[in-house]
Amino acid sequence: MRLVIGLALAGCAWGQAAPQVAETITKEEPATFKARVNLVMVPVVVRDRQGRAIGTLKQEDFQLLDKGKPQLITRFSLEKAGGAAGKDGKNPQNSGGAPSSPVEAPDRYIAYLFDDVHLQFADLARVRDAAWAHIRDSINGTDRAAIYSTSGVTQTEFTDDKDKLRGTLFTLLPRPAARTSMQECPDVSYYMGDLIQNHSDTMALNAATVEAMACAHLDANSRSAAESMARSAASRAIAAGSHETRLALGMVRDVIRRMAATPGQRVIILSSPGFLTIEDHLQTSELIDRAIKANVTINTLDARGLYVEGMDMSQRVFNMDASRVKAEYERATDRANSDVLAELAYGTGGKFFQNNNDLKEGFHTIAEAPEYMYILGFSPQNLKLDGSYHSLKVALRTPAGLSASARHGYYAPRHLSDPAETAKEEIREAIFSREETRELPVELHSQFFKPNNDTARVTVLARVDLKGLKFRKTEDARNANVLTIAAVVFDRNGNFVTGVQKVVSMQLKDETLAARAASGITVRSTFDVKPGAYLIRLVVRDAEGQLMTAQNGAVDIP
Questions:
Q1: pTM for this predicted structure
Q2: Beta partners for 438?
Q3: How confident is residue 46, by pLDDT bands cut at 50, 70 and 90?
């Protein structure tokens, strides 16, 4: 079963619109904002000689090069990991007037993603045991963990129930999607198949042909038939390898999308032996971009531990010369398999743990997001929409004792980004964050009412002070602005429960604006929930000033 995420917050119509008032219309439709187009985001982690992340650098300390050409850094921010979720600060009241209890929000979400499509049983068992040791000893009360597999068969959503996580872990089994355990004749790997079919590699083709003659007991006069067998085996290997790569990358994408709906620090730990991305480079680049936008750090662990390159002794040898050539390709395959793990980690500001058998220590090392991460953004000049690869380099102008880790490149898009859709993503990112910003004068209040013991109704009130808004004069001398107000409810584990997004369009005369300046406007959102502890997130964005306020609240319904 694949992980399916149906949440599409920005632009969706939830709940009922607030009553219309003179010169102010509230409706549930997306507002259109100015948005960044073709902005490339580059997370950078700077460490000192002791490996500690450094958070004291400024924008002018960085130089960013795209294909060797210096780029103008148009966006710069420093992100600090951790930070407790904020509280409402307004002591929300229930229907009887008694204050509700504060709800402790999770600080960190860790998704353990196991590549059961590519992992062999021995490696999967070792990495599974190490993961449980880490969950048992290191996951605390403000953490939530989830378990997913690249096959989509095994999964448990975010929870703090360690027994439930342990039960899911020990149901993990290797689930190859397209490969068989039988040794084929000839036995051609995905890597060799690509060389034969796509790169006309005569050495790889000859090795597969010689092995075909040996395993099929063909004589020298049947070489053309053996070569045909080799090419067919290459084609099958490419089809199988491509399918399993798409499956693994697709699940990484789904987990990133799922984690975008969690408030707090977001970390994915991908445990895998690695896999080839021969035909999926653009998809990998898009995954990195998606993770950056969702504030998800991908840390990767090579589940093979400390492995020895060379010939696979579990496979039958039909021809020694062919096997020696294949061993060279196996060594190249082992190195290439690690590339995607390194790319996903370094491209999102994460870590890559490899060539070490202490997998428990590996989980401990990579479970944390870096304490400090710089986000550099630039808009490539004269960017061709051709899907070509652009190498990136981040240099420090004052590198004394410091080293920078960043994504190595990106693939150019094949079409322009849609500004309206990009703006919706920006609002969505704010909703599923726990960071509080107060660029607009907004007050958050929450109340609840229990009609009976089994149901409750939560009301979220957003009061916006009009004196703090920027208005645009229209042709008929009215004051115009558009507010997007999103109120979202999460459960105590940070899982999305319900939410509503409303758009308030204002066309106010001068006298109306002056009269309303003192009282402002209040938008009410009501949700039907079951009794329990909930986190509330309110985001307000205006179209004219391009300013945003994001606040956290909490309500505990007994």
A1: 0.68
A2: 549
A3: very high
